[in-house]
Design goal:
Layout (H helix, E strand, L loop, with lengths): L1 E6 L4 H13 L3 E4 L12 H13 L4 E6 L3 H7 L7 E3 L3 H11 L3 E5 L5 H13 L6 H16 L1
Parallel strand pairs: 1-2, 1-3, 3-5, 4-5
Length: 149
């Protein structure tokens, strides 16, 4: 799978472990930065290009990491077609994909440890959207809202 990845200084500690795990699992990674630790960087500069790539199909799924994950999540959701969520436990990592077709996972680098982050990433990437009528109906309502906004 082609995965997009972005982090800022707040999530930088998870950068190398996640990238290494993705590559070891056979995924192709498009890295949107940050490429070095800079306490003055801002997550929108990395998350917006990632969210656009996800929404436009340049990557199949995205992973964004900032300090809490909150900023990355609400920023990604400003891009039409990006469906991101802040996830810090395993159930939502697969349920968000299965029911809601989540295509961009957000993590808080200052909130969870490396082992849990890697587990969540693995669960997220293994999940598949279930195209049940009720899920598709809900997604269509969200897409309609994006068009109006």
């Amino acid at each position: 799978m082609k995965i997009g990845f972005a982090t800022d200084h707040g999530g930088f500690e998870l950068r190398e472990p996640i990238l290494k795990a993705l590559q070891n699992s056979g995924h192709t990674v498009k890295d949107f930065g940050a490429y070095s630790l800079n306490p003055m960087d801002d997550y929108p500069g990395f998350v917006i290009p990632l969210a656009r790539a996800v929404a436009q199909g340049g990557v199949e799924r995205g992973i964004a990491v900032c300090g809490s994950g909150v900023g990355a999540s609400f920023t990604a959701n400003k891009v039409p077609g990006a469906r991101s969520a802040l996830i810090h436990e395993s159930f939502s990592a697969h349920q968000g994909v299965e029911d809601d077709d989540m295509n961009l996972l957000c993590l808080g680098g200052r909130v969870i440890g490396i082992a849990l982050a890697l587990e969540i990433v693995q669960i997220y990437l293994a999940a598949h959207h279930v195209k049940a009528e009720r899920f598709e109906r809900r997604l269509a309502k969200v897409a309609a809202l994006e068009c109006k906004e």
